[in-house]
Specification:
single chain, about 280 residues, two-stranded antiparallel ribbon, disordered N terminus, alpha/beta, disordered C terminus, 12 helices
């Protein structure tokens, strides 16, 4: 996507609240409801924030000072999106107050935005997902102010004309909250680039959430989410795409992360970092 813009804010500026270090990433200790209030307050006050909802795969990709770790560090808030992340924090002796999944955050944030007059913009999603999500959000949150969704084509990040069109859509939207559904890490790269065009807005990378809202992809039953098996449901739905991520990469990383958390708790690894 070309050279990223100059750093705007990042996690060292104006942050208040407890943080927990898990597997090489710093997570903010905040409940979903508190996050919703904070994001809307920030945007309506003209000082929008960027939140990353970090799951186990995000933590895995943040290892060893990678490019993605530096990207996440630019966000104002990073929250736990996944039961394994909560389990690792608890094993470490520094429990987090609860799960803040992006797919749960979006509808709650939309309802509160409708109540407080905040304007939303949807970017990305699979073909047809933005339209379906728009209809679902309007039904869920009557009176919600939604800007026209912008769905860039595949490969837009390498196309100057498509990037210009995306930037114009962001400027024109006058949005207070922006949901970016482009998959990770592309959505984080886009947010870093685009947020300077709408600095008062709060930004959230939402992955597959628009497809959930549109009904194009079914989300795991509630009981599976509660016991930390949502990944198993996703794997059953998309085995070819997700086998490597969940089985070959995710499971070994989770076991290493849990052991590292116990070592930290027992005092044998005081750094609190995941060792390779």
């Amino acid at each position: 996507m070309g050279k990223p813009p100059k750093r705007l804010r990042g996690r060292g500026s104006g942050h208040a609240g407890q943080r927990v270090r898990v597997g090489g990433i710093t997570l903010d200790s905040i409940r979903l409801e508190g996050l919703v209030d904070r994001l809307i307050d920030a945007s309506l006050d003209g000082r929008g924030e960027w939140v990353v909802t970090a799951n186990l795969d995000h933590l895995r990709r943040c290892r060893d000072g990678s490019e993605y770790a530096a990207l996440v560090e630019e966000a104002d808030l990073v929250v736990a999106d996944g039961r394994p992340v909560l389990w690792a924090a608890r094993l470490r002796g520094t429990p987090l107050p609860g799960l803040v999944a992006g797919s749960d955050l979006v509808p709650v944030l939309a309802v509160e935005a409708a109540k407080r007059g905040a304007r939303l913009l949807l970017i990305g999603g699979a073909p047809g997902a933005a339209e379906g999500a728009t209809a679902a959000l309007k039904e869920l949150a009557p009176g919600l102010d939604l800007a026209d969704a912008h769905v860039p084509p595949m490969g837009f990040e390498d196309d100057p004309e498509e990037l210009a069109a995306l930037e114009e859509a962001v400027r024109r939207s006058r949005a207070d909250i922006v949901f970016v559904a482009l998959g990770s890490p592309l959505q984080e790269r886009c947010i870093l680039r685009l947020r300077e065009l709408l600095p008062s807005a709060s930004w959230v990378g939402v992955g597959i959430t628009l497809s959930f809202l549109a009904g194009d992809v079914s989300r795991a039953p509630v009981w599976m989410r509660r016991v930390g098996l949502e990944w198993g449901w996703r794997l059953m739905c998309e085995p070819r795409r997700l086998f490597k991520r969940y089985i070959m990469q995710g499971l070994p990383f989770a076991m290493a992360l849990f052991m590292e958390s116990l070592r930290v708790r027992w005092g044998s690894d005081p750094r609190g970092e995941l060792t390779s």
